[in-house]
Design a protein that fits this description.
Largest sheet: none
Distance between the termini: 15 Å
Pfam family, one: MatE
Subcellular location: Cell membrane
Structural class: mainly alpha
Helix content: over 70%
Number of domains: 1
Radius of gyration: 22 Å
Protein name: Multidrug-efflux transporter
Organism: Desulfobulbus oligotrophicus
Number of strands: 0
Shape: globular
Strand content: under 5%
Order of helices and strands: HHHHHHHHHHHHHHHHH
GO biological process, one term: monoatomic ion transport
């Protein structure tokens, strides 16, 4: 088969994996979209509260997701080797670690009021945000269990399982949001705080669906996942490889998301209208972010499986094909956002002032689509190689060493003569993503040389 056909074949494999992954991820992030729209229709104060609350919650949630992302490359490489016991062990460890870690984070979300006061968030926004965080915190243990199961299914190239669970959870979230925000069927009218409780209930439903589907399947390595007799008797001694891979992944996602949290808290000082506009731009771009993020997850699976199979030539082909797909997709999303920015803002709010500012911020969001897609797909490739510590340091440098200082300077202290405003923070984000894209792409080159060059004797073509 000629090289072009091989690349087209690999592109087809990646896209078949990416499609269900996109839908699964979109179904989960769409919960944030639903929360934002429904809270915004209730009141601008509730919208601001959900914006601040989600900005606090998601770094914690993403650390949990990142920690459990270790399941995917472990399962993918074990699947490539045909090792059912290793698949089973990785998923069981993920379930235990996910549940314990999720429960441990709950009190953290209950004590965020002093931070919001210190950051200068308006008192009426703090009150609703505090109630929102209390409600959504109860979804963390279930989320830990769900993402362990999801990571195993994805690593086995079965992303449709989490897609089904995600869409059922989204439907439940929409209905429960309506009931709790507006107080229907005898339930209390909780406003924006109801979004937190609705999300927790939706996560529980997704976990139950995923558990039922896996318990009735014949997928390699998933038998007896929920049997007490198969509890890991050597859990403590077996945890080191999992945590060595998972903790840097969790910290990487935390670092990536926390910069958005800090920026949201700084922007909160500028008033509810500015917060609402920032949240609209961020929320919509988060929906499109699922395209490169899901491709990155597909690359993790394919890279991990290929390494497990010891196929050096195919590994390079997987990487090249994935990055070309990434670039193509990011150009498309950039054009979509920049062309329809006004109409996108109109979807979220009827407030003219918020609409106008949101449309401006969406132009900045369009620009960062290109470096964002590159950095997230390079991260997916490195994750499949089980390379997590160096990428963490590169992300930390890019986001906290470059992006946040520049964003603060442009956004609040007139760096370069710019007027203070949210636009400056978005410029900082563009700089952070560009730096991360460059550094991570260089790291990918290093890893490919190790795996297909000096290590060629251990990897057959």
């Amino acid at each position: 088969m000629n090289p072009t056909r091989l690349h087209l074949h690999e592109a087809g494999v990646l896209l078949r994996l990416t499609g269900p992954l996109v839908l699964a991820q979109w179904s989960q992030t769409a919960m944030g979209f639903v929360d934002t729209v429904m809270a915004g229709r209730y009141s601008s104060v509730d919208l601001a509260a959900v914006a601040v609350g989600s900005s606090i919650f998601f770094p914690v949630y993403l650390f949990l997701i990142g920690l459990l992302n270790a399941v995917t490359p472990l399962v993918a490489q074990a699947h490539g080797r045909g090792d059912s016991r290793a698949i089973h062990r990785a998923m069981r460890q993920g379930m235990v670690i996910g549940c314990i870690t999720g429960a441990a984070f709950m009190p953290l979300l209950w004590g965020m009021q002093p931070l919001m006061v210190w950051m200068g968030v308006e008192p009426e926004v703090i009150l609703i945000t505090d109630r929102y965080l209390f409600g959504i915190s109860w979804g963390l243990p279930c989320g830990g269990l769900f993402f362990a199961l999801k990571g195993g299914g994805d690593g086995l190239a079965r992303p449709r399982l989490s897609m089904i669970a995600g869409f059922i959870g989204l439907a439940v979230n929409i209905v429960t949001n309506y009931l709790l925000i507006y107080g229907k069927l005898g339930l209390p009218a909780l406003g924006g705080a109801g979004c937190g409780w609705a999300t927790s209930f939706s996560i529980l439903v997704m976990l139950l669906v995923m558990a039922v589907v896996l318990s009735r399947s014949n997928i390699r390595g998933t038998a007896h996942l929920f049997s007490k007799s198969t509890a890991p008797t050597r859990l403590t001694s077996d945890l080191a490889p999992f945590l060595k891979l998972g903790i840097p992944l969790g910290l990487t996602l935390f670092v990536e998301c926390s910069i958005f949290t800090i920026i949201a808290l700084f922007i909160a000082k500028l008033g509810a209208e500015v917060v609402a506009a920032h949240q609209i731009a961020l929320n919509f771009t988060s929906q499109l972010y699922m395209l490169p993020y899901s491709l990155g997850m597909a690359l993790t699976v394919r890279v991990g499986f290929t390494i497990g199979r010891r196929r050096a030539t195919r590994l390079r082909r997987v990487v090249r094909t994935g990055l070309v797909l990434s670039l193509t997709g990011s150009v498309c999303t950039c054009l979509i956002i920049s062309t329809f920015s006004d109409k996108i803002a109109l979807l979220y709010t009827t407030d003219p002032a918020v609409q106008g500012l949101a449309a401006i911020l969406l132009i900045y969001a369009a620009i960062f689509q290109l470096p964002d897609a590159m950095q997230v797909n390079c991260s997916g490739i490195l994750r499949g190689c089980k390379d997590t510590r160096i990428p963490l340091l590169l992300i930390l440098l890019s986001y906290w060493g470059i992006g946040l200082p520049l964003g603060y300077g442009f956004g609040l202290v007139r760096l370069g003569g710019m007027e203070p405003g949210p636009q400056g923070f978005w410029i900082g984000l563009i700089c952070a993503l560009s730096a991360a894209a460059i550094l991570l792409s260089l790291r990918v080159r290093v890893m490919l040389r190790r795996l297909t060059g000096s290590a060629a004797t251990a990897v057959r073509p």
